[in-house]
Amino acid sequence: MNNLVDLDAHASPALATPRRANRAYLLPLIVFAIFALVPLSVLWGSQSFILALVTRIMILALAAMSLDLLIGYGAMISFGHAAYVGLGAYSVAILASHGITDGFIQLAVALSVSLIFAFFTGAISLRTKGVYFIMITLAFGQMLFFLGTSLAAYGGDDGLTLASRSMFFGSKFMKNDVAMYYVAFGVLLGAYLLLRAIVASRFGRVLRGIRENPVRMEAIGFAPYRYQLTAYVIAGMIAGVSGFLLANQTEFVSPAYTAWQRSGDLIFVLVLGGLGSLHGAIIGAAVFSLLADILSHYTENWALIFGPILILVVLYARGGITGLFGSKS
Fold it and tell me: Which PANTHER family match (predicted)?
């Protein structure tokens, strides 16, 4: 009985001690408050690249949060998660190249394609375990990468430039960088609240139970495969939305979006921020992007510096950056 109480308390901060609940809510509030106020820096005369940088951080955080549902809560280590980012981005680019610039249609296609791909690849991948699961998700991701490079009509290996950003209700308001920023902010906040509700729900508790002991969960009447596949599809669709935003923010798509290195970056972000922490994925995305931006100004081989930093985090901050604050969600 005590174990069940502890599990529910972990799933819902409201059931935890007041101090723990405060930590669980305070850090995300601070993070989102900072994001909400960033555009004010432009009004004060700062350079517009700040908006572009933080918008990219939020888009990366969105993809990382979706992967955290798989790795942090479901122990499903996918090395092909960037494939869904690519699917979302190419949905925008291919439709736009044929004159379909309505954002609702593009978003619906991005979600549909991501759902279908996640369902069928997940149905196959989840029949494997451990390193076999990692390798088969990597294979599916690379399959999309090579498909992208072969699409000569859509830029092939060189990628494809968008003529304009998506339109909503016939308006090109996303052409404005501040509007684009707040669209990304709104989507990130909505996805965070959705994933937090999923994690705190009965579904989320079952998913964590499967992570700890799938045999026992099956013995008490839960089908691990069905729950894992559902989580896999949800994660893929959210990553597809991040691809939709990325295509609009950069006004460019490339097969590189689906490469295994991008999936590796998402895993680095989670390790840095803290596995099993949704706002940890956001903080990890911010730290990863800022470090990459700063270090790349000094050397092209910035990854050689970033690597040891990540190792130190793994060795001395087992819960990532959020672990240092004792805050998980």
Answer: ABC TRANSPORTER ATP-BINDING PROTEIN, HIGH-AFFINITY BRANCHED-CHAIN AMINO ACID TRANSPORT SYSTEM PERMEASE
- Asked if residue 80 lies in contact with residue 236, where contact means CB atoms within 8 angstroms, the answer is no
Report pLDDT for 311. Answer: 83
Find the distance separating the first CA and the last CA of the chain, reported in whole Å: 22
Q: How far apart are CA 154 and CA 146, in angstroms?
A: 13
| Helices and strands counted in the chain (H then E) | 15, 2
User: Considering the chain, what is the average pLDDT of its residues?
Assistant: 86
Give the separation between CA 190 and CA 170, rounded to whole angstroms. 24
Query: Structural domain boundaries of the chain?
Result: 2-325
Phi, then psi, of 128 in degrees rounded to 5: -115, 170
| CA separation, residue 7 to residues 3, 31, 67, 163, 305 (Å) | 6, 26, 22, 50, 38
- DSSP secondary structure of 25-48: HHHHHHHHHHHHHTTHHHHTT--T
Residues 283/31, Cβ–Cβ less than 8 Å: yes
Q: Rg of the chain over CA atoms, in angstroms?
A: 20
167 bridge partner residues:
102
**pLDDT of 310 strictly over 70:** yes
Q: What is the pLDDT of residues 167-202, one digit of tens each?
A: 888 888 888 888 899 999 999 999 999 999 999 999
CA distance 34 to 37: 5
Cα–Cα distance for residue pair 48/50, rounded to 1 Å: 5
**Alpha helices, DSSP H, located in 17-159:** 18-37, 40-43, 49-74, 82-97, 103-125, 130-150
Q: Which residues pair with 168 in a beta bridge?
A: 171
| CATH T-level topology, domain 2-325 | ABC transporter involved in vitamin B12 uptake, BtuC (1.10.3470)
For residue 256, give every residue at least 6 positions away whose Cβ sits within 8 Å of its Cβ, in sequence order, or none.
Answer: 159, 262
Please report where in the chains the tokens 């369902």 appear, as a residue: 119
What is the structure's pLDDT at 21?
52
Give tens-digit pLDDT for 33-75: 999 988 887 666 556 788 889 999 999 999 999 999 999 999 8
